[in-house]
Amino acid sequence: MGYWDNKAAFVWNALPGEEVEVDVTYNKKTHSEGTAIKINNPSPDRIEPLEDHASICSAWSVMTLEAEQKWKEETAREVYDRMGGITLPSYDMIWETNKDGNKITHGYRNKIEYSFGQHPDGRVSFAFFERGKRNRRPIDQCLLASKEINETAQTIFDWVIKREISLRSLKALIVRSNKAGETIATLFIKDEMKFREKEIQDLLSKSFIGFQIYYSTHKSPASVPTKLLYSVGTDAITENLAGVTFSYGALSFFQICPPIFERALEDIRAHIDSSLPLVDFYAGVGSIGLTLASSVPSVQLVESNPEAVENAEKNIRLNDLSDKVTAILSPAEKVTEYITEDCQVVVDPPRAGLHPDVVKRLLEVKPKRIIYLSCDLSTQARDIKMLSEAYSISFSRLYNFFPRTPHIEGLVVLELV
């Protein structure tokens, strides 16, 4: 954040202390937003990013790792204080490291969604949307993605070019990978095109194990799966987290960086009461609740997305946990009766945070412990402030789930006062 024309300016590609020239993408009376296009006096923390499109996907790769650590911890400290009046026991942020003990900064993402664009010379390419704009920036690959994702994406791209599929027909490509190096992919096109199934099947390999092609209506800019045109190989991928097997599709929500998520699971497990049943709200495919099932008498997974619940039920069967775990398809605020005095609650909500009815129920029945993992520290701080009338913080930790980006995940354990 800086200042321009006597008002606040929120600027990407700028570091504290720098004077920059900005391409303004949003300008109101209260504030402006934009991206720095010229740095007049670089910060000592500034480094050259590894990608020319870093401002789009890895905006924090313009600074040293030490600066990223510092500013994420300072950001968390400020957000918790400003939004909740909260001081955490610790602001230390955990990174995933490689076998040599070095921090992992690239190749960690197990999911990438590419758009399609055009190079100045007319060639079709992968693309990401420019920050704050509607136009697409051509790219060749994304270094945040796993090696296997980049390889599979290139295989599909080469096929797209060979088949001379027009840019007008191409919408998006989603590729997912797992720790075993396997990938699945889903291509969205805006026409019900005909292909020979064998040519699609021939794209698969030992590592590229599933490919689906969907017609996606032009009426929506999003990757909407309007009609399945082709499906070869498997439509799901499996991952092992903390000794539990998970299956999920290309369009399902699953943690983007499993190794650091496992670090968070270790911290969550350390605060679980083995004598109390567990209620897991906003459970997704069960990635938290199922890993804790062996430590508690029973688990109830509450999730509003039908596909996620379908996957959760599949994962319950995969791990022979049907006698201990139940998946419930419902918005969290509609089934708050599952929160009782004699249970412990885990929540991992979307960026909007907890629904007010969930907070109300927690304060009414007062379960002994609430474990709150969040991808948005501001809404987490807001919710904790409301819960603080009955709860105090016993543990906290920050996780760098997304290195070289501004995102931070926070874990807070709340104990009944």
Structural write-up:
- The protein is α/β, with parallel strands linked by helices.
- The longest helix has 20 residues, at 65-84.
- Strand 15 (278-281), helix 6 and strand 16 (299-303) form a beta-alpha-beta unit.
- It has an 8-stranded mixed β-sheet, sandwiched between helices. A 7-stranded mixed β-sheet has the order 8-7-6-9-10-11-12. A 4-stranded mixed β-sheet has the order 1-2-4-3, with no helix packed on it.
- The chain has 9 helices and 21 strands.
- The protein has helices spanning 54-57, 65-84, 147-162, 197-201, 258-269, 289-292, 306-318, 356-365, 377-387; strands at residues 2-4, 7-12, 20-27, 31-39, 93-94, 111-118, 124-129, 136-139, 170-177, 183-189, 208-215, 227-233, 236-241, 244-249, 278-281, 299-303, 325-329, 344-347, 369-374, 391-399, 409-416.
- Helix 2 packs parallel to helix 9 (377-387).
